[in-house]
Amino acid sequence: MAWRPTLTRTESLVCLVAGLGFAFDLYESLMTALIVGPALGSLGHLTPGSPSFNHWVGLFFFVPAVVGGLFGLLGGYLTDVFGRRRVLTWSILLYAGSAAAAACATSLPMLLALRSLTLIGVCVEAVAAVAWLAELFPEPRRRELVLSGTQACYPLGGLLLGGAYFLAVTYADALPSLCGGHEAWRYTLLSGLIPAVPLAVLRPFLPESPLWRQARDQRRPSPAELWQPGMRGRLVVTVVLVACTLSIPYGALQHVPRIVPGILHDTAATAREVQQVVSAVFTIQELGSVTGRLLFAALVIRVASRRRLLRWFAAPCLVACTTMAFVAVHEGVAVFAATVFCAQALFNGMHSFWGNYLPRVFPTRLRATGESIALNLGGRVIAVTAALLTTQLANVTPGGVPALRLAYAAGITATLVLVAAVVVSHWLPEPASDQLPQ
């Protein structure tokens, strides 16, 4: 197929909508890191750093991700059966509606249930979007650029969320009452409804994957094929490596908003000023996400070996995470924010890797199912146990304040999973061809 550097109008719309979808997937996913502390204080009257507080934090990181991952497995199969575009649309409607409902939660169990529904929509949408893009752009060079370029929009969701949270914290008292009060975390949750509206309107008018239509007419997908000898090994290795990769945010990076107040504990900053600093560090963190995605987009078409490309991000990420957790946490907010930026950039390079790699190892009829097993079983169900590990380690690690203990715990978790990733990458299968397997 001839290389065409430019995009048609329809292709440009596809890329625009896919990029928005990736951005707002992350927007919804990252909300837990910002709202969990204030929500636990408001709905549960829990004290930060207490065992009960850490227990609920672990639940909010763990339960929605596991529920989303388990239902995401089903969503991957449904995407192979009913089509990429249809599943995309319904998953967006699900996470938009549940996000809006969560803003009016009146108890911690209710909020936990609604956050679980939101993550179900996110998990299903992400898998369908990657398969959809890969099949709409089958030419290898264009596919790599489109997948890496649209995934570079992921961090925009984090930047928008950081801005939304800053506005909610700063201007909450001036906003209309929500559930009888002016709590910033509720307005932040409610904002999750806004981006889904244009996506839900536009996506039904976009083209379905022609490769999926052809594969559907030839043979019905059977997930059992993924466990046959020729495919089972690559599936297991990818599940393990995706689990190691996605353990980094669950076990370390998403805890940054709760570490920052501990760095400021001996200052005279007010509660609002502390939250504004949290928002600023979060924004710097998401700028790191943008940098990492763009760096990956620059390298993906220049580095032939997939193993080497993955290691180029994993090994430096190990250095950055350990420095962040064990050294920079003692050096003030500015130094801490700089190391968070680096760690976040390197993690996002690894995350982009999987969006480009996975479509090349599973055939069309099982592409979404295989991607879903890797991203949801590995990246959600298994990886999220890192959040439980970190929150439990925070109860026993040394440190003068709870936030310092949390930083050490995050560093231990990140070290374990990144060392494992570097070792297991030795068995990562190299794709047989630049073309998508049929």
Task: Please explain how this structure is put together.
- This protein has a single domain (12-204, 227-427), classed as Growth Hormone, Chain: A (Up-down Bundle).
- Helices cover 74% and strands 0% of the residues.
- It has 17 helices and no strands.
- Helix 5 runs antiparallel to helix 14.
- It is globular, with a radius of gyration of 21 Å.
- The model has no long low-confidence stretch (mean pLDDT 87).
Give the C-level CATH assignment. Answer: Mainly Alpha
Low-pLDDT runs of 5+ residues are none
> Percent range for helical residues?
over 70%
What is the end-to-end distance? 16 Å
Structural class: mainly alpha
* Beta strand %: under 5%
Radius of gyration: 21 Å
The domain tally reads: 1
Number of helices: 17
Largest sheet: none
CATH topology: Growth Hormone, Chain: A
Number of strands: 0
SSE string, helices as H and strands as E: HHHHHHHHHHHHHHHHH
| CATH H-level homologous superfamily name | MFS general substrate transporter like domains
In round numbers, the mean pLDDT is 87
CATH architecture: Up-down Bundle
General shape: globular
Topology, please?
Blueprint: H1 9-44, H2 51-82, H3 84-102, H4 108-136, H5 140-151, H6 154-171, H7 184-190, H8 196-202, H9 210-218, H10 229-251, H11 256-263, H12 271-299, H13 306-326, H14 333-357, H15 367-382, H16 385-393, H17 402-424
Helix pairs in contact: 1-2, 1-4, 1-5, 1-6, 1-7, 2-3, 2-4, 2-15, 2-16, 3-4, 3-8, 4-5, 4-15, 5-12, 5-14, 6-7, 6-12, 10-14, 10-15, 10-16, 10-17, 11-12, 11-17, 12-14, 13-14, 13-17, 16-17
